[in-house]
Each structure stands twice: as C-alpha cells, then as structure tokens.
UniProtKB/TrEMBL annotation:
Keywords: Membrane, Transmembrane, Transmembrane helix, Transport. PROSITE patterns: NA_NEUROTRAN_SYMP_3. It is found in: Membrane. Residues 516-535 are annotated as: Disordered. It is a multi-pass membrane protein. Its main location: membrane. The keyword Transport applies. InterPro entries: Na/ntran_symport, SNS_sf. This is Sodium-dependent transporter.
Amino acid sequence: MTNVRDDAGARAAAGRPREEWTGQVGFILAAIGSAVGLGNIWRFPGVAYENGGGAFLIPYLVALITAGIPILFLDYAIGHRSRGAAPTSFRRLAGRGKRAVESLGWFQVSIAFVIGLYYTAVIAWALSYFIFSFDLRWGDDPAGFLTGEYLQVGEPGFSLEFVPGVLIPLTLVWIATIVVLWAGVAKGLQRVNVIFLPLLVIAFLILVVRALFLDGAVEGLNALFTPNWEALANPNVWIAAYSQIFFSLSIAFGIMITYASYRRRRSNLTGPGLVVAFANSSFEILAGIGVFATLGFFAFEQGVAVSELEGLTGVGLSFITFPAIVSQMPGGPIFGVLFFGSLVMAGFTSLISVIQVVSAAVQEKFGITRRTAAVSVGAVSAVLSILLFSTTTGLLALDVADQWANNVGIVASAVLMTIVVIWVLRRGPELRFHLNAVSTFKVGRIWVLLVGVLAPIVLGYMLIQRIVTLVIEGYGGMPPWYLLVVGWGTIAFIVIAAIVLALIPWRSSPDEFTAWPPYSPPPRTAAEASAKEVS
C-alpha cells in the first residue's frame, strides 16, 4: 500500500497531484522514444564503421553493460525515489543540509534548454526535406543546395537575416512541441510516443528492406560489419564506444530523472530499463544496416569503394549524402519520404523529452500549472531558437553549440552526478535499495562500483580529452573569437543559469517530503548493530 504521508508531502510540495504515466508500457514507449533520436540514425553507423566495423560491437556492448545501463538505472532511481524533476530530485536526495546540490539539477536543466533550442532546428530541416523528397528539389548538387539555396549559410557571426525555408518549419515544430507539453504526460508525451514510435519502426523497416535489395548493398554491409580486430587495441575505439552509448541513451541530463518521477510508487524500474537500453541499441544496429546498405548502392553507382565516400555521419550524411543517393535510386522519392519522415519522428519524440525537463523544473520551482509552464518555456525557447537558428548564421551556431553542449556540458554533468551522488552524498546503497525494493531484476553492489568508479573515470577521461582538443585545435576551422563566444559562452551560460536558478526561492518548499519505501542504513560497526538489535 502506498505511503499516504509520502504522497501528501509530495503533493504539498508541488501544490497538486503529480502526473503519472498510464502504465508500464506507456513509460517504456516514452523512454524509448526519448532515447531513439537523430544520433541513432546519423551517428552510430559512421562511428561503428570508423572504429573497427563489426569488432566495434564488442566495446559497444561492454560500454552498454558497464556504463550505459548502470547510469540509466541511477537516473531512474533518483527520479523515482525523489518524485521530482532534476532540481527537485537532487535537492531532496541531498537533504536539508546540502541544498547547494540543487544547482546540479539546474545544470542539467540548462543543458536541456540549450539542446532544445538547436535540436528543433534540425527537425525543421528534416521536415523541409520530407517535403523536398516528393520532387527531389535539391537537384544534382545536394551540398550546394543545403548550404546555398536552403540554409543560405553566411560567415561566422550573428545575423538577423532570416531564412524563410527554415523559419516556417521551425515555427511549426515549436507550436507542435508546446501543444504536446500543454496536453500533459499521459495525454501529450505518452500519446505522441504511442503513435510515433510504431510508425517510426515500420517506416524504417520498410526503408531497410528496400535498401537491402539495392545493387551494392552487400558491399555496404561488408564495409560496416567486417571486423577489424586490431582496432580493439586502440583505447580511442573504446572511448568512442562509451561515448556512443552515453549520448544515445538520453542519460545524465535530466530526461530519465524526470520521466521516472512520473512512474507510480510501486513500479518496476530495472526491467523496463533493460528493455529501453536494448531496444535503443537494436534500433541503432537496424539504422546501421539501412544506412550502409544504401551507402553500398551509392558507392556502386559511382564506381568507388565505400571507404572512398565522404559524409558518413551527422548533417553531411542526412542532408547531403542521402539526398544524392535518393536522386540516383529507383523509387527515390518514396525512399526520401521514408528516410526524412523517420528523422522527423525520431527527432520529435526526443525533443519533447528534452523540453519536458525544463518545463517540469520550472513548474515545480515556481509553483505554476503544467500548462502555464509549457507555454512559458515553449514561448521563450521558440523565440530564442528562431532568432539564433533560422538565420543565415544558424548552421554554424548550431554546429558549435552542439559540440560544446554535448561533449563538454553533458559529459561534465555525468561526472559531477556520479561523484556527488555516490561519494559526496553517499546515496549509492540507498538508491540500490530503492531499485531492488520496487524491481524484479535486482542490482548488486557491483552497480555502485560501476556508477561510482568506472563511469567517472571513463567519462572524466573523455571530458578532459575533449576540452584539451577544443582548446588547442579549435573546431571546424572557425575563428577563435566565435568559438569563445558561442562554444565556451554556451558552457558559461549553463553554469551561471544553474547557480542563479538554485538561489531563487521556491514558491512551495520541496523539503517537506519523505522518500518511500523507508530506508535504514545498515550499521557500520558491531556496536551499532547491537544497539539496533536492542532497540
């Protein structure tokens, strides 16, 4: 039976009953929808190809089991036990004496806010290209069309010269996002994922089956899956595997904390977590098959090897290489519609989870309604997103902001979270107890070691390595002043916002809260054990 006092405390803090998913299936679909995003389609295939091909699956699976799933469980445990968005959860986890830990939650919220601003722009591009696929509007020069006619890319700087082809779909995406958040967790987020996720899988399966029957598809698959066993001796390959798993699962920046907080008190956490993790990885492998079968056809048509192709990841793969392929293949328009439709659906289900992190935190901090928070956060985000990313300098700003927010911001968040939770607050045993108390799949003490030792070491190395590279080598050949303002300025904004928001008084204090189920720390000494037995 649910602890009445706990629910009363939670409701008093929030001012109203907490929203919930309708059940386990709804939560699983929403979590998979968040995890399966643009990176699954345009990042994993290229990363795998460049880091050992088939051999890459070994470090990939090791990273999934030793870091991805453990940190995913950590997010679930924090959100479900503390019953709040990231700032609320970290504050409650820390207790009354360590309220500064709340700033870690706002650090994650600020990262989500920044990512939401530019992630929406990429979905807007995909929406445009979905329409362009019907008449192959990019013509014979997809690269020139993208940077010239469509995005009208200018020099590094800041421009208010808007590009109508981006402005209109970007506005539509933001309107749709606000509507979904306004509808709530069950009627908005869950319903969109229940509809979009099956459609995404069906559309992508059709795309993959079509790609497998193209000339040269086998050569493309051989290029992807032929193992280079020597690559396993390269530490950078293992770092690439941990990096891919980490960025793919939507962990360590508030999403899964927030999503888990909407689960009912007695809800299995670890079982669904395994389903989400392996479903996400399965889609990545499916994406790899589809992408490289298609690239094999492209190489066949050009009379070159797959290794000689360019633009195998990211924006280049999706908006330059794939349009070029679509123009050459039989039934190209249908293939283009399926591909860019998949990008839109995968991106949108991830986007709404990112913005929900911000909306939920604002709702709880300022004691406003869900709808007020959705409209307020959505409107502010939409204005900033349009001003920054629908202009002639939008592509360059997006590229730089993405590099710093992801490779510095999110990784730093993960390192801080694991160290603070496990070593500073020493909540590892309590969170392990919580997972085991409500779940069917039990986690052992090794989970605490993976989260508290392995994860911060590997992620810390990734963070230091990336910061050194960005400082010494810069990025993309862009002027240092531009990288300082947009790149390091993004990190400065995230840090300052985290500090300032943590200092603002709560409308209704979240501290009147008792976690459920009750946890009693095990005695550390024989004397404590004897005293406990006597009492």
